[in-house]
Amino acid sequence: MPEIGGGWNYMNSLINALGREDRTNEYVAFVTDQSAVLVPSAPNFQSRMIPLRSRTRSLRVVFENTALQALIWREGVDCLHWFANVDGVLNVAPAAVTVYDLQPFLDHVQLSTIKRSYLQWRLRSAARHAPMLLPMSQATASDLQARLGADPQRMTVIPPVLEPEFAPPPQAAVDRCRQRYGLPAQFWLYVAHMHPHKNHARLLEAYQTLKRDVPDTWPLVLRGDPQPGGPDVMSTVSRLGLTADVILLPRLAPGDLPAVYAAAGALVFASVYEGAGLPVLEAQACGCPVIASDIPPVREFAGDAAEYFNPLDVAGMRRAMMALTGEPARRARLRNLGLERAQTVRAQPVVRHLLGAYERAIANGRTRMREPRRARQL
Q1: Are 152 and 192 part of one and the same domain?
Q2: Are 22 and 128 contained in the same domain?
Q3: Which of 289, 279, 11 has the alpha carbon at shortest distance from 166?
Q4: 48 C-beta neighbours (distance < 10 Å), count
């Protein structure tokens, strides 16, 4: 579903990169009416439409473990890429499983008891038995190994792919976007759906104190959708007296996000937990300076091309924002470093690693099928 945000964007960019870079292998995509748009128009890609409502999770789980397995068998699939942290209970084709993060094991992530239990069970199973795990960052790979005992020999990190559109846009495109959304000349930008771990409340508190001390500081622009169980961000904005200073963007027209990044004075990425922190990479690729939470996945990808703060320290966040707004040369340095850093997650090297992981999944799956039953249980 598009509203899942980062996971959807990760799938979209990775599948489209396969469509551009690989003309050798044949791909079959099992899609619903919502996810069909993810499949590239490439001669070696085919879609199989599944008449299923994606939002009905219980039906989706049943389908994945029954009818979908029959479809996989019928298509003669050599390897199935599962994009949502878990695979099937019994798989007729070797599984390669994308793992974004280990949120079901974290207390600060709000999940129903049933959903949390199911995801914990399936993540543990994938960590033990899946022929190949595809964590999106080395930080997630380390978590899989430390928390769930995953074998590093069955893991390949597949980072996010930056689509070609994430690059500094022409100034005319930036100007059109600024006019379309009523954006000011300079502003702070935060791109994140409104989940509790995205830390909007502390960011707003830091911004309130910054605004109190520096009345002419930049406005704060938020782009993200409200989420069930998440914070009521606009109520917090009102309570803190920031209604005139915080702009909540609607869903953007296709292709507008790079121009919004380029229009911003800087991205402030306040999340306390991430699998990778894709908006940081997108912003850097578009020439937007970044200050961000000092958490392992963000440091892994942004490196020295960002400046960092403790996401639990409101005063520290405020100091980082104040320092950056007052130093244009500092922003220019971060912009240039970010543009260089973004080149490390372009399509070609990522697709090469992904194709190698598929081959290893097939080999590992065949090896497991040949193991004696007692050995497999152990």
Answers
A1: no
A2: yes
A3: 279
A4: 15
Strand 27-31 to 290-293 pairing:
unpaired
- 138 burial (CB, 10 Å; 0-12 / 13-18 / 19+) is middle
DSSP state of 251: P
Dihedral sign for Cα 293, 267, 334, 327, please: negative
What Rg value do the Cα atoms of the chain yield, rounded?
Answer: 22
CA–chain centroid gap for 182, Å, is: 27
Is the pLDDT at 377 greater than 60? The verdict is no
Asked if 7 and 152 sit in the same domain, the reply is yes
* Strands annotated E in 164-210: 188-191
The three-state secondary structure class of 13 is helix
Is residue 166, in this structure, part of any structural domain at all?
Answer: no
Partners of 266 in beta bridges: 188
**CB-hemisphere CA count at 13 Å for 318?**
16
Return the amino acid letter for 333.
Answer: R
Going by C-beta distance under 8 Å and a sequence separation of 6 or more, which residues neighbour residue 200? 190, 192, 194, 222, 231, 233, 236, 270
Pairing state between β 45-49 and 95-99: unpaired
Kindly tell me the sign of the dihedral angle through the C-alpha atoms of 292, 293, 299, 300: negative
Q: Which helix (H) or strand (E) holds 334?
A: helix 328-341
Domain that holds residue 105: 2-161+347-377
Tens digits of per-residue pLDDT, 189-232?
999 988 888 999 999 999 999 999 988 899 999 998 887 766 78
Beta pairing partners, 223: 191, 249
